[in-house]
Amino acid sequence: MKFDCDVLIVGTGAAGLFCALHLPERLRVTMISKRAADASDSFLAQGGICVMRGEEDYEAFFDDTLKAGHGTNRREAVQQMIRFSGSVIQTLLRLGTRFERTEEDSLAYTKEGAHSRARILYHKDISGKEITETLLRHVRAKPNISIREHVTMLDLIAADNCCGGIVAAEKDGSVGLLRAPITVLCTGGIGGLYTHSTNYAHITGDAVAIALRHGIALESLGRVQIHPTTFYTTKPGRRFLISESVRGEGAVLYNKDLQRFTDELQPRDKLSEAIWAQMEKDGTDHVWEDMRLIGEAAIRSHFPSIRQHCLDQGIDVLTDLIPVVPAQHYFMGGIRVNLASQSSMRGLYACGETSCNGVHGNNRLASNSLLEALVFSQRAAEDIAFGSGHGALPDAASLPLPPDLSRYADQEALFAGYKQAVLDAIERSQTP
Questions:
Q1: Hey, which residues does 348 pair with through a beta bridge?
Q2: Structure confidence by residue, pLDDT tens digits, 294-306
Q3: Is 140 marked active-site?
């Protein structure tokens, strides 16, 4: 029995792609995606990506992150994220990522809630799409990396706290093994567990459920972030985000009487609480967001996708107010990892939203998510390439015995159980 690859990456969002790009070309890398490779939440990010604007910005960036997280952040993780932010941005620029520029051709920065200054790089209002498409294009060009779409992780191949790959299902439902000495979980968040979420419905916290099954250390499962402003609709499906940068550029919120009722640039949890309180007071299902104050030119150049989505719903943000409501947005808990993105299981790493390195604390600072995903996925790649190997299996002969594949015949029941396990764990974590 042989390894199918040297490194197996589960997920094709920003974290998985950046990790793959930083692995040496001598390593055979296989990436799998539950749906199409571009159907990850990374593609949906609107606002942008933070960067430390020189040494003079370090303390302010650090303080802003801790204030948003209510001081519960892991300080050494925040420090690593900020210190590596510049090199990450340089890599993105080298790869051809298009960030907005000033008339003098300098990088343009925007500001979002709870930031003390403008330090967010962006591309219109589709920053995640621009960054992740750029990464995906470069990954597809690498001869040592293969991407397998519509392949779903069902379980880990694991024994004695050591991972040897995964059990996976093909699009037709057939089940097999993908064996690897190193596995990196980059499976995203938990939005598919919620009725109202900005996430793709198929992203349901599978890695967290599987970690629960195998006794892998988890952290802060009760930390679920709500985004204050999503487009209000009674239609089913994913909620469309009205980016925080809209408020950073000057949009305000009104109650039913069209009166401003709160500070729009509070941390997300505080603003969500203010909106819910106003909705209860007014007896309404939403509040109003006014983009008109930003000005037509800025709306057309900075927020074309948001304007188009609203137009599709019969609202022109140049003249009309937008109905908005909070919805589940981001998971700040997950598989506990160290600064090199190592999980508690040997041979297993986790990056991006499915991991918890402590950067975000109780509440994520706006636009820190893409930065955190890229910094810590690069650290994972460097540890895999140059570190101790995180106790990886030395050869295929030492692989754990594969599980009985017949137990995965009823995949609908399997995932129903996974979803309930994650929801129960979140509820336990949130109970005082």
A1: 183
A2: 999 999 999 999 9
A3: no
